[in-house]
Specification:
Pdz3 Domain; elongated; 8-stranded mixed β-sheet; 22% helix; 337 residues; alpha+beta
């Protein structure tokens, strides 16, 4: 009985001690800030010195830029965590929600910051961007259906890849695309697969505020406009040549390519499995051709190929030197208005 009583007393003392410690700990203060502002990329790039006193963190210096005060920080603050991650030697603040774990004057402080950016943005889709977007749409669920009072209200973007091709952000709630209400994931994918050439307005909810995204889809490059003009000679509209220069990835689509190695060194690129609808086929290339250069500019790697196209874009006549079955073939393209 005495032993049990002693245990009871000890447990009670431990409990009182923990309770007293909890009561002695300073309460964490919470500050909420909401801003309508677009911060410059360089606003927070100054290195923050490391705090040497435990628990450590990043020290806001006395000469910190005014933007630090706008987001709730003060000189002398020790910034410990940003959105749960240890603070580094600089900050990057853009549109979004942030939580700062701070020590100010020896006391803990949480800053909840909401930054609202511009009310609108735009996105341009050239031929290459369009094809990449269509591939991204095949990934599976891109969003989560949302409701208000039990009724469908939109879809919340959950897929990061799709934000690369459009000005969506993860967390956006898509309301309408081209005036059409988007109430389910299938409707979202169908609308994006069928974006018309030209401008389409997309309305999303971002940070509990409406945001307009103007998507401009460029007209697809019509490869049928490349016309034969004699043996190994072709006519190409200048507008089409300009479009190809703006979307160089089209140059490498619709066939497979490997470096052509001779005497241990790469000299040109060999093409095979050329699809009939590809640019290579329309330009007179056939399986097994080795493209040696474009107007004398080497194409021993893809970067050289893109550079060659950029170098000759303004010319009125372009010659591509090809090796075909061991013989030299010149493909000549007249660029016409």
């Amino acid at each position: 009985m005495r032993t049990n009583g002693l245990k009871t007393c000890l447990v009670g003392l431990v409990g009182l001690t923990l309770a007293a410690s909890a009561m002695a700990a300073p309460p964490t203060k919470l500050v909420s800030i909401e801003l309508d502002k677009e911060f410059s990329f360089h606003a927070f790039r100054k290195d923050l010195p490391a705090a040497t006193e435990e628990p450590g963190g990043s020290l806001v210096p006395v000469d910190a830029a005014p933007e630090y005060m706008e987001i709730g920080l003060q000189p002398g603050d020790v910034l410990r965590y940003v959105n749960g991650a240890p603070a580094g030697d600089s900050l990057s603040i853009s549109e979004g929600v942030y939580v700062f774990d701070v020590v100010r004057g020896g006391k803990p402080l949480l800053i909840h910051l909401v930054v609202h950016g511009a009310a609108s943005s735009s996105s341009k889709l050239d031929d290459d961007d369009w094809n990449l977007l269509q591939a991204a749409l095949k990934r599976g669920p891109l969003s989560t259906p949302m409701t208000v009072n039990g009724k469908p209200s939109g879809v919340r973007i959950t897929d990061l890849l799709i934000t690369i091709h459009l000005q969506f952000e993860v967390g956006d709630i898509v309301r309408t695309i081209g005036g059409r209400a988007i109430l389910g994931g299938d409707q979202l994918i169908d609308a994006l697969r069928n974006l018309p050439v030209g401008s389409t307005k997309i309305i999303v909810e971002r940070g509990q505020r409406p945001h307009t995204i103007m998507v401009v889809r460029g007209a697809p490059v019509d490869l049928t406009k490349i016309k034969a003009n004699g043996k190994n000679k072709f006519r190409v509209p200048r507008a089409m040549a300009t479009a190809l220069g703006a979307a160089p990835a089209l140059l490498t689509r619709g066939f497979e390519i490997v470096p052509a190695v001779r005497d241990g060194a790469v000299h040109g690129q060999q093409l095979y499995k050329i699809e009939p609808s590809s640019l290579a086929a329309k330009a007179g290339l056939v399986d097994g051709d080795v493209v040696l250069d474009v107007e004398g500019h080497p194409v021993d790697d893809l970067m050289q190929a893109y550079q060659a196209v950029a170098e000759v874009e303004a010319l009125d006549k372009i010659t591509i030197h090809v090796e075909r079955k061991g013989k030299r073939v010149d493909l000549v393209f007249d660029i016409v208005d």
